[in-house]
Design brief:
Elements (H helix, E strand, L loop, with lengths): L2 E4 L3 H10 L5 E5 L2 H10 L4 E4 L8 H4 L5 E4 L6 H10 L3 E4 L11 H6 L3 E3 L8 H10 L6 E10 L14 H9 L2 E5 L2 E5 L6 E5 L3 E7 L6 H4 L5 E8 L3 H10 L8 E3 L2 E3 L1 H13 L7 E10 L3 E10 L8 H18 L7 E3 L2 H4 L2 H13 L4 E7 L5
Parallel strand pairs: 1-2, 1-4, 2-3, 4-5, 5-6, 6-17, 7-12
Antiparallel strand pairs: 7-15, 8-9, 10-11, 11-12, 13-14, 15-16, 16-18
Length: 377
Amino acid sequence: MQIAILGAGMVGRTMALDLVKTYPVTSFDISEASLKILSNKNSSVKTVKADLSDFGQYPALLSEFDFVVCAVPGFMGYRSLEAIIRSKKNVVDISFFPENALELDELAKQHGVTAIVDCGVAPGMSNLILGYHNERMTITDFECLVGGLPKKRVKPFEYKAPFSPMDVLEEYTRPARYIENGSIVTKPAMSDAELIDFEPVGTLESFNTDGLRSILFTMSHIPNMKEKTLRYPGHISLMKSMIDAGFFSKEPVNYQGRPVIPLEFSSKILFDQWKLGEDEEEFTLMRISLSDGNQMIRYELFDENEASSSTSSMSRTTGYTCTAALNLLIGNLFTKKGVFPPELVGCDETCFRFILNYLAERNVLYKITTRAVNPAG
């Protein structure tokens, strides 16, 4: 059983270290520094330097592997997934690209491939939970509030990114879609800001981001659905100022006779500002609420970095969801062919329980509560 992991960033490394406990794992990345960090953590993981943007090499690159995990940056995720499918490899993907993964469904069926996509924490677990309860109740309202934040607040950003800054900036600039009264509503990213109190971290601000993704279409019968991102208060105002000043524009500007794309330049500058240190304390917070008008079911996650292994919370909560899904495929617990976002996996109780138990074994714990809904509001 040979597993290939495409991408050796913070989350890619966490997944490699989880899977190598059971299977032979090879990690591919263009960054020698990232591969070296992984090798230093566990030399059992084979590391290979490779340009993963060379999609034509995928059939040869992946020929010896039985399963693939795709953890490349979002801007190249769709084409990477397409190349993996054309290589006829079953895959679990967390690259969170902006394109619609379901457009590759027919291609996956033609090649006899199972592809589970968007399989992180949110999107990922949020979808899985929605899919499970959608089979068991008539959901009228779904809300997901989620964020990963450093414990130490350092001005001006009070934020660190476990992912590529470019992917975070896409969240801040891509129009946000949600469902209200059965219709898709589109608003600017970071709109509808509100302050919400959370235990044990205090007050955070939430704002619209385009996080519903596939469930806009697979769960379109649910009349009200919304996903909002969480940050420390004040972060939105700073990011909006940078947007207004043009720092996140995708239109090239001329500088000393050469075209420069502000978004790419800003991402490069922010990389060091937002880089999460290996031992930096941080946490992941998520609150998922589902209602049928009579009862409210709530899943709450508060997860902190694991100091003993220098593993960030966001890489744990994202990566272990992905490796759990991969183990579904390895164990033939999910065998359908095509492209499947997690809500289409979570509708199966065996798959849903397997992933929750897999996470619990790694101390990623979801608190579940149920209460009656007050008809008056």
